Amino acid sequence: MRQYLLETSVYPREPKPLKELRAVTATHPRAMMGTSPDSGQLMAMLLTLVNAKRTIEIGVFTGYSLLLTALTIPDDGKITAIDLNWDTYEIGLPIIKKAGVEHKINFIQSEALPVLDKLLETSDSEGSFDFAFVDADKINYLNYHERLLKLLRVGGIVVYDNTLWGGTVAMPEESVPEWMKPGQHYTIELNKSLAADPRIQISHAPLGDGITICKRLY
Ligand SMILES: C[S@@+](CC[C@H](N)C(=O)[O-])C[C@H]1O[C@@H](n2cnc3c(N)ncnc32)[C@H](O)[C@@H]1O
């Protein structure tokens, strides 16, 4: 079913992304720990709907969602991609190079928060990004949200990954495995906060581990 969806919607019009993304997951199965292909398919759709040119990605890992974004935005587009680890980015880098999209990526090895703060100090950064994807440390999602709402233009979109947190957001406390409890707590806080935020329009899509799409309204 998933394969059928992949092959019948976004990708036939863009044969290169599917080929390259398959290459990443075939060569590096750990990339499957990242963004799920069905969430990725929706992301590609959103990127094209907002004509995304300047994007931010927080949480790169081996680069599945990064490659998808790089293959979707125009040739003169730019992604500010932030991750604590260079070594995992390096795993996917040969595929990014093979796909001919490395020039669209500005990879920054760092904690994400100081990078966003630094961007906000640059006068032309506020309101200049079209799209952001957040797939990193859950504890900081609300901190990222405040900064990203300033960095995105009105009408721009931020997508948060893992907003179902393995389904635990809807489970009674006692049935949640101990190791998932901190993530459950932060994700419930995030979901409540996004739902009550008048600055955004939101849609929660139960794809993969759940993604929440937020559009900046003003
Ligand atoms: C789930 S993976 C990202 C998966 C990726 N989006 C993909 O499609 O494969 C989470 C990543 O977030 C990074 N990360 C965690 N905390 C971070 C932080 N505070 N700042 C920047 N990156 C962080 C981790 O190093 C890890 O590579």
From TrEMBL:
Single GO BP term: lignin biosynthetic process
Query: What keywords is this UniProt entry annotated with?
Result: Lignin biosynthesis, Methyltransferase, S-adenosyl-L-methionine, Transferase
Gene3D superfamilies annotated for this entry?
Vaccinia Virus protein VP39
**Key word Phosphoprotein present:** no
The answer on whether this UniProt entry bears the keyword Transferase reads yes
Gene Ontology terms, MF aspect? methyltransferase activity
Query: What PROSITE patterns does this protein map onto?
Result: SAM_OMT_I (PS51682)
CDD domains xrefs: AdoMet_MTases
* Family, similarity comment: Belongs to the class I-like SAM-binding methyltransferase superfamily. Cation-dependent O-methyltransferase family.
UniProt-recorded name of the protein: Caffeoyl-CoA O-methyltransferase
